[in-house]
């Protein structure tokens, strides 16, 4: 269900694998024109306002929503199932990402200037990629888990046992770290002609040998395979739910199958809307780069499109809690109970304080009345 910085991209995952795919002439194809372009950040006039607003929204909604989700999930960790384990890991990934967003907001507010050093730039880049790949992988795991639960409940039930799911999650985190840790060995910042220091921007990596092959492979491995897996699992799941509804009139009348199919469609929609624009944008530019060397205008247009599409991808981190709310009956029940408790406490506090305030107001009125009566009596006696 699950994430990402503007200008971020699938550069380093599967680097070693894709490097082997590079042809001997790939380095000549990767000759950078970025060093000769002075207009790559001409859009900072509007970007330094719009991007901080977008990422501040993602930070507030994403952090509060995922902290609430973790607050609901954590007390019941001993009674969890496979779906909850995957969801908890996805929540943890989203929270890690949200914690790094204030630094990124500062970077955009300063007009693509990073004065905080190479180390913090690498740290934010690492958190971005961890969130992105952990999110994609755990969303894929959730789709496979739901598929097994409904379509193949007996044959592969062992994969849904909690202790096995925990090992799967550990494996996912190890895979994500293997994909992202190479970032620490590569420079993330670059000083531009105007003195601005950029952090984790695409032009900073234009001279990497075999760059188009690496990124096309990363799109295939980090987006193509998960997308096909998610679509296949949820399509089979919807087909099975329709079949069950036809054979069970009670299920059909209750509308449970329609609700489940609706939730599945929402999950697919969120994944496609958040992740597709960025990966399609990256793929088309890399294919063009293999055919000819884009000029400064095309590179600048790609820069702007990356800022926009990566913002869409980052929205995934604040949409996940809403999916939990509608998809998980237990989660929805606990959240509503928590909200009712807060409302009840607020009302109780008002009820406790209101009589005291009312009594004080009555006392003031009575006191004023007595003073008025005394003054009037004294006036009458004087007369």
UniProtKB/TrEMBL annotation:
Keywords: Adaptive immunity, Cell membrane, Disulfide bond, G-protein coupled receptor, Immunity, Membrane, Receptor, Transducer, Transmembrane, Transmembrane helix. It is found in: Cell membrane. The keyword Hydrolase does not apply. InterPro entries: GP183-like, GPCR_Rhodpsn, GPCR_Rhodpsn_7TM. Residues 65-324 form the G-protein coupled receptors family 1 profile domain. GO terms for biological process: adaptive immune response. GO terms for cellular component: plasma membrane. SUPFAM superfamilies: Family A G protein-coupled receptor-like. GO terms for molecular function: G protein-coupled receptor activity; oxysterol binding. The keyword Transmembrane helix applies. The chain crosses the membrane at residues 49-74, 86-110, 130-152, 164-184, 213-239, 260-280, 300-327. It is a multi-pass membrane protein. This is G-protein coupled receptors family 1 profile domain-containing protein.
């Amino acid at each position: 269900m699950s994430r990402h910085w503007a200008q971020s991209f699938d550069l380093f995952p599967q680097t070693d694998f894709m490097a082997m795919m590079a042809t001997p002439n790939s380095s000549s194809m990767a000759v950078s024109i970025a060093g000769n372009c002075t207009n790559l950040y001409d859009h900072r006039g509007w970007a330094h306002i719009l991007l901080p607003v977008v990422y501040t929204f993602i930070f507030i909604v994403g952090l509060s929503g995922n902290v609430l989700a973790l607050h609901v999930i954590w007390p019941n960790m001993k009674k969890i199932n496979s779906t909850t384990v995957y969801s908890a890991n996805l929540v943890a990934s989203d929270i890690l990402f949200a914690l790094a967003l204030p630094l990124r907001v500062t970077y955009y507010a300063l007009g693509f200037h990073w004065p905080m050093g190479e180390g913090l730039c690498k740290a934010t880049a690492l958190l971005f990629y961890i969130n992105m790949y952990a999110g994609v992988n755990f969303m894929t795991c959730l789709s496979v888990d739901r598929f097994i639960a409904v379509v193949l409940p007996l044959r592969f039930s062992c994969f849904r046992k909690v202790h096995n799911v925990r090992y799967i999650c550990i494996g996912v985190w190890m895979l994500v770290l293997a994909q992202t840790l190479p970032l620490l060995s590569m420079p993330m910042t670059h000083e531009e002609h105007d003195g601005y220091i950029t952090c984790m921007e695409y032009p900073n990596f234009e001279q990497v040998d075999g760059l188009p092959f690496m990124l096309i492979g990363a799109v295939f491995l980090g987006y193509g395979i998960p997308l096909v897996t998610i679509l296949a699992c949820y399509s089979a799941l919807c087909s099975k739910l329709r079949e069950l509804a036809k054979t069970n009139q009670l299920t059909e009348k209750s509308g449970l199958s329609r609700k489940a199919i609706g939730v599945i469609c929402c999950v697919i929609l969120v994944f496609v809307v958040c992740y597709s624009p960025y990966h399609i944008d990256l793929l088309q530019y890399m294919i063009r780069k293999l055919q000819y060397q884009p000029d400064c205008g095309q590179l600048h247009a790609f820069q702007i499109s990356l800022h926009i599409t990566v913002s869409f991808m980052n929205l995934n981190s604040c949409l996940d809690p809403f999916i939990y709310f509608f998809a998980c009956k237990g989660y929805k029940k606990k959240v509503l109970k928590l909200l009712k408790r807060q409302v009840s406490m607020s009302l109780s506090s008002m009820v406790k304080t209101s009589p005291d305030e009312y009594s004080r107001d009555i006392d003031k009125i009575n006191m004023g009345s007595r003073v008025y009566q005394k003054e009037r009596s004294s006036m009458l006696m004087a007369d």
